[in-house]
Design a protein that fits this description.
- This protein has 237 residues and is α+β, with helices and mostly antiparallel strands.
- The protein has two domains: 2-57; 66-222, Histidine kinase-like ATPase, C-terminal domain (Heat Shock Protein 90).
- The protein contains six helices and seven strands, in the order ααβαββαββααββ.
- A five-stranded mixed sheet has the order 2-4-5-7-6, with helices on one face.
- The longest helix has 31 residues, at 27-57.
- The radius of gyration is 19 Å and the shape is globular.
- The mean pLDDT is 89.
- Bound molecules: adenosine-5'-triphosphate and magnesium ion (MG).
């Protein structure tokens, strides 16, 4: 119901019902209406993140099992976030290795994982930095998931994450006590979702970072699901 209410508020603004009001030609009122729209969108994002986490924790997340061309997913996501990178004056590059196999997994969940990692990298990297999305094939023998896998890395040249914080940033609501974090909005939910979704897909999530020298988050996902992907409300029973 809350999602319904906030979605309604956002749509109400988007439809121009508010902005079409002659009173909203006045700059200050237009600005205020715009701020309400931005805040409503942020609120909707937080509510959706909280619901996603609650669903995962309750074992009620439906997983799809479909053929996924991960190279296409990477290219499409980069197109999606490129305007954000441009706005923050960041170089955004995609490096796709050779012979990346088609995977059988849930493309939507992978998009959600990578979108959260890319939006963090773009958000926390100061202007003139670089954000890179790369993917490569991993043979079964060297795979942390004991089977053929694809490793996808989101790396940036931002402030990095101190060693003492590298576990805690994956906890819900945990944000670094740093100027750059305070300068940007966020509830501290994105990485908790990334962690939970990666586990759900049978993958491994690692972070390499040295403060002052950027951060690299890597998700290793099996090419085939580890066991028949559970679906529906009885998935965990
Ligand atoms: N690429 C990064 N570089 C530096 N710090 C990072 C990076 N990614 C995450 N962090 C730190 O980890 C914290 C947790 O990240 P997380 O994505 O969970 O939350 P958020 O981005 O602050 O909020 P939300 O994702 O809910 O909008 C961030 O607040 C930030 O302090
Ligand atoms: Mg985030």
């Amino acid at each position: 119901r809350v999602v319904f209410a906030v979605t309604g508020a956002v749509a109400f603004h988007q439809d121009g019902l508010v902005l079409a009001d002659p009173g909203f030609k006045e700059p200050r009122r237009r600005r205020h209406a715009g701020n309400i729209l931005i805040s409503s969108r942020m609120l909707l994002g937080i509510i959706n993140d909280l619901l996603d986490l609650a669903r995962i924790e309750a074992g009620r997340t439906d997983l799809r099992s479909e053929k996924v061309a991960i190279t296409d997913v990477c290219e499409t996501l980069c197109q999606l976030v490129r305007p954000l990178a441009d706005k923050n004056q960041l170089e955004l590059a995609v490096h796709l290795g050779e012979n990346i196999p088609v995977m059988v997994t849930d493309a939507g969940k992978i998009r959600q994982i990578l979108y959260n990692l890319l939006s963090n990298a773009i958000k926390f990297t100061p202007p003139n930095g670089q954000v890179t999305l790369s993917a490569r094939k991993i043979q079964a023998e060297e795979s942390p998931v004991q089977r053929e896998a694809v490793a996808i890395t989101v790396a940036d040249t931002g402030p990095g994450i101190p060693a003492a914080e590298q576990q805690r940033i994956f906890e819900k609501f945990h944000r670094l006590d740093s100027t750059i974090t305070r300068e940007h909005g966020g509830a501290g939910l994105g990485l908790a979702i990334v962690r939970d979704l990666t586990n759900l897909l049978g993958g491994r999530l690692t972070l390499e970072s040295e403060p002052g020298h950027g951060a690299a988050f890597t998700v290793v996902l099996p090419v085939e699901p580890p066991e028949p992907i559970p679906t529906g409300p009885d998935a965990r029973t």
